[in-house]
Design a protein that fits this description.
The chain contains nine helices and nine strands. It has 207 residues and is an alpha/beta fold. It has a domain of 137 residues: P-loop containing nucleotide triphosphate hydrolases (Rossmann fold, 3-Layer(aba) Sandwich), CATH 3.40.50.
Length: 207
């Protein structure tokens, strides 16, 4: 017996290679009623990526047209490609009571917080810069020049951890995954959200 309740927005950010995408994928297979917001991007698809599943792959012309139509809640240029998060898909899921998790960078997080002030933000950090570089190399998606650029950018990105509500060190994957899940579950159990979701039950108990 529950009342209708809207979903909440969760932001997960990390430097490139920090492991946030793997952690988010693990999260959405472990919990119900939570989905990943799919971003639009102008970059080419990587091996194994599918349009509409990993990203919506669009031309730069199409992307800029969407910007002019205010279709994005946040967008940014990263390594010569554009990324953006559609407002329509977020609102539809929230209205259906589904939590939405955004796998974005710290710049996007700043924009999201302005539109969704109740959003919960989580920052993922590696145990060391050496481990971060090794993870980027192990992905075999970028050449050494791109990896060097990502490492330079990573240190700037890491300085923004203070802007987030939670900080998770991704040293052991299963441990970090459990910590991420605990943040989501704890938010769902906040008294203010439980009153909205289970108002009828509470009324009956107090009658």
């Amino acid at each position: 017996m529950t009342d209708s309740a809207t979903g909440n927005v969760f932001i997960v950010a990390a430097p490139s290679g920090g492991g946030k995408t793997s952690l988010v994928n693990k999260l959405v297979t472990s919990l119900s009623d939570i989905e990943v917001s799919i971003s639009h991007t102008t970059r080419p698809a990587r091996p194994g990526e599918r349009d509409g599943a990993n990203y919506f792959f669009v031309s730069e012309q199409k992307f800029m047209a969407m910007v002019s139509e205010n279709a994005f809640v946040e967008h940014a240029r990263v390594f010569n490609h554009y990324y953006g998060t559609s407002l329509a898909q977020i609102n539809a899921r929230l209205a259906a009571g589904i939590d939405v998790i955004l796998d974005i960078d710290w710049q996007g997080a700043q924009q999201i917080r302005r539109l969704f002030p109740n959003a919960v933000s989580i920052f993922i950090i590696p145990p060391s810069l050496t481990v971060l570089k090794q993870r980027l190399q192990d992905r075999k998606q970028d050449d050494e020049e791109i990896i060097a650029a990502r490492m330079l950018r990573a240190q700037d990105e890491l300085s923004h951890y203070v802007e987030f509500d939670y900080l998770i060190i991704n040293d052991q994957f299963e441990k970090a995954a459990a910590q991420l899940q605990s943040v989501i579950v704890a938010n769902r159990l906040l008294a203010s959200r439980q009153v909205t979701k289970n108002g009828k039950l509470l009324s009956l108990l107090l009658a």
